[in-house]
């Protein structure tokens, strides 16, 4: 399975695996794909630095990348205290009331003071770039489109290509104009921040718009070799998969005891119909697992979500409380419609081997249709 | 491009073309696909009978099919007068006010009394089946899922296979249990009545659920050979295309003078982002071209759409007025996200030739990736 994207990145398969887990990211790279570590959860650049050093040591010398969250337009910035003061009391009251109604206990009295997820802030995302460029990374991807041009230039000085997610043709064109090397065409099916156009329509549109000015990866709805073959048929040079790794054996985030987390149990049970696209996670539309938490926000009495980054600050303690309450019916987790195919826990290497084998079988199958 | 579906139906290419235009349907069949004539617009069975006789004579002896609209659950039934009386005055007032605001003139004083579209009624859809089975049809498809079992049995007695659209795996399973032969997996991208799951996820899910118990066609977002190759990679045995034929040279519905209709001009100008999924057309969620008409119904002061079949009766005169006003900014037309690729008017035969050539080129391209 060789494409321009796999050749350019020096990887065996053009399978890019986005994940917040360094264990999973390293396993993806070791298995021949490109593991891309999500940085948004690292409030402390020193912690990211330690984790990337671990990645350097645990990827058998193979390439890996990082993913940052940097909105194209600089959003509200400020200290934690400034931002907290911008959150309306009505919103806080709704969150408190909802958590009580859903039976989510408060944090333990001795719990560390929650800092919220500050990776949404431009200043913090920039610190992620600074730290990442001190490691042997092969890609910087931005989950919210084109990063500022000076960040792109900085990466290029270190020969690091830049990727940016796009949910519409116009975004893809402006990413390329800004100097982005790889456009990730992300269909409506995808988990996390996502647009309205389905992968079947979006991918060839973006491939045609980008032409020879960059590479295109397909994201949204991909978790099998058939889907990888479909993405390549649509013209993509590779695939970007995020959700599918959440139920691999190496994924241990949110699991205190080492067993399955409540989030993983909820993901394993969900069908493709059990997701919803909503602004409640970050302030921008993102696809999440549909649970009692997302349903509460869909009630007529729920307030409208706040803009980024305020919404994430508003719900950040709620996310911690939900995670610790370990109730699979009350989960706050971005995931795509491919969740319907996430029905067992397997090692990353096994998942990769199956993807490649099914891709090959699919190509053979449709080759027979052609004749 | 031979598959089980094309062999079973006796057609050259597994490309099923749904269209309300007999000229287009016949041209699709003549070009090697299966033209499928939409019957919902025929209130008078005798008119459908005449049109199908024309199809018999103008398809070079090649197979064609029909598409009916028969909800699985029998909806509100009754005479035109009964049904009219169930429409709230508030809804009528909103439609009148909106048309006035959008500058849509009333019908000419001598216009025929509008009967509304009665094809939504079970009794009328049954008359379509009765008439169609007296012609040499090769397929009965139902746009709203499984038709009643006695209708399926009736078709099977005449060796006519039955197809049903499905937007979710559960629907596909129940269609097969009812005796349906061909499941059309219709993704969120599609025009007309459509569900929430994107084609990339839905098609392989339905293929796996149906297994050897039936054939699966992919619908939603298909208008190029790359997209056909993607659909076959996902496991479909063929494709079901509807929107894409609306801008072929043979499509003349709604065009009084023989030139482009206002609807066609609007479709040619639209991008993939210019559609919306709404209940305003029939009472069930359907994807339409986004225009001033759909936007008016999305305003906070707009009433909720009525259930099927009342909503269509409510808006049926509005649809006639809109069609006659010929303003491309005020159009009421089902279409999928593929509208972004509908940018020129071409004969059906040319469209088919391009689909097949691009399919072959795509299979060759991804064959090279495999090695």
Automatic annotation (TrEMBL), chains A, B:
The keyword DNA-binding does not apply. InterPro entries: Aldolase_TIM (IPR013785), NMO (IPR004136). GO terms for molecular function: monooxygenase activity. Gene3D superfamilies: Aldolase class I. Keywords: Flavoprotein, FMN, Monooxygenase, Oxidoreductase. It holds the Pfam family NMO. The keyword Protease does not apply. It comes from the Bacteria. SUPFAM superfamilies: Inosine monophosphate dehydrogenase (IMPDH). This is Nitronate monooxygenase family protein. It comes from Skermania pinensis. The lineage of its organism: Bacteria, Bacillati, Actinomycetota, Actinomycetes, Mycobacteriales.
